[in-house]
Amino acid sequence: MLLRLNLPIPDRAFLQSQSQHFQSQNQTQTPLLFDFLEDQRTNSEIAIDFVYTGHANGVITINVAEADDSYRVATKELMNEPYRTLLGHFRHELGHFYWLRLQNNLPELKTFRTLFGDERLDYTSTMETFYQYGAAQNWQQRFISAYASSHPLEDWAETWAHYLHISETLETACSFDLITSDEMAGEFHHWLSTWMKFSVMLNALNRSMGMSDPYPFVISEPVKQKLQFIDSWVKDANPLC
After folding, report:
1. CB neighbour burial string for 49-82, b if at least 16 within 10 angstroms, e if fewer
2. How far apart are CA 149 and CA 146, in angstroms?
3. Which residue intervals of the chain are DSSP H helices?
4. Which letter does DSSP use for residue 30 in this model?
5. Burial class of residue 233, CB neighbours in 10 A (0-12, 13-18, 19+)
6. What is the pLDDT of residues 150-174, one digit of tens each?
7. Using one digit for the tens of pLDDT, what is the confidence trace for 198-230?
8. 33-37 and 54-56 as β-strands: parallel, antiparallel, unpaired?
9. Residue 117 CA: distances (Å) to CA of 122, 137, 222
10. How much is the pLDDT for 1?
11. Residue 84 carries which DSSP code?
12. What is the band of 237 on the pLDDT scale with cuts at 50, 70, 90?
């Protein structure tokens, strides 16, 4: 999916080859790396007490327990989440990684703050408030998920994940001739309209099998604007920016 969207996936060799360019632009670039770790909650022989799934400085860490259905479903219920998948974790954390590229562009950063809020808000205190008091009141009107209301950077990552959810699912639907290539690759509003119709069908099919909705989300007008910003950024992204 990242390759189809022409998003850069930098490794150390690429960054070394472009180091002079980054220095001239006063930019700090990091490779995209993954750590799959286990902790004592699932393996008593492991030294690490607790592994958080997250992103830091280009490294995406995934707790391998998230690949276990029983663990993931139990955590989903505990956190009162409508959706939790291993793929969803990957896409969310990739949002944090690509944020490192967006923050280098001042005009885009200004637009980001208008839509998502000021990312300079103290992250620790806002997250503590979220976990203590819950999501912002009426969060459904402005955010794609309750967690997105916790901090502007989490709003970005959650919305980014949904952009990838939609893109990938429509691409799959197109490959099975459920939608046309024009519907999948049209301009943003047409693309999103296709998704709104398709997701209704997708949910209805699951309900026919007695299963929960695969896409239990409402895309409000503010979320549409955030998705459109991501869509524009992706289409304009320069591998060296």
Report:
1. eebebebeebebbbbbbbeeeeebeeeeeeeeee
2. 6
3. 12-17, 19-24, 69-78, 86-102, 106-116, 123-133, 152-175, 181-185, 188-208, 221-236
4. -
5. buried
6. 999 999 999 999 999 999 999 999 9
7. 999 999 999 999 999 999 999 999 999 999 999
8. unpaired
9. 12, 16, 12
10. 85
11. -
12. low
Q: What does each C-alpha distance from 202 to 76, 168, 170, 237 come to in angstroms?
A: 21, 14, 11, 31
**Sheet containing strand 33-37, strands side by side:** 33-37, 59-63, 54-56
CA–CA distance, 231 with 241 (Å, rounded to integer)? 16
Cβ–Cβ < 8 Å for 3, 171: no
Closest CA to 223 of 196, 184, 194: 196
User: What's the token pair of residue 51?
Assistant: 């592994």
Global pTM reads 0.88
Measured CA to CA, the distance from residue 34 to residue 223 in angstroms comes to 29
Distance CA 185, CA 40 (A): 45
CB atoms within 10 A of CB 162: 26
Name the nearest CA neighbour of 134 among 79, 96, 89: 79
The predicted structure's pLDDT at residue 129: 96
Secondary structure of residue 50 in the 3-state scheme: coil
Residue 92 has pLDDT above 90, yes or no: yes
Please name the helix (run of DSSP H) or strand (run of DSSP E) that holds residue 60, with its range, or none.
strand 59-63
What does the alpha-carbon distance between residue 213 and residue 63 come to, in Å, rounded to a whole number? 25
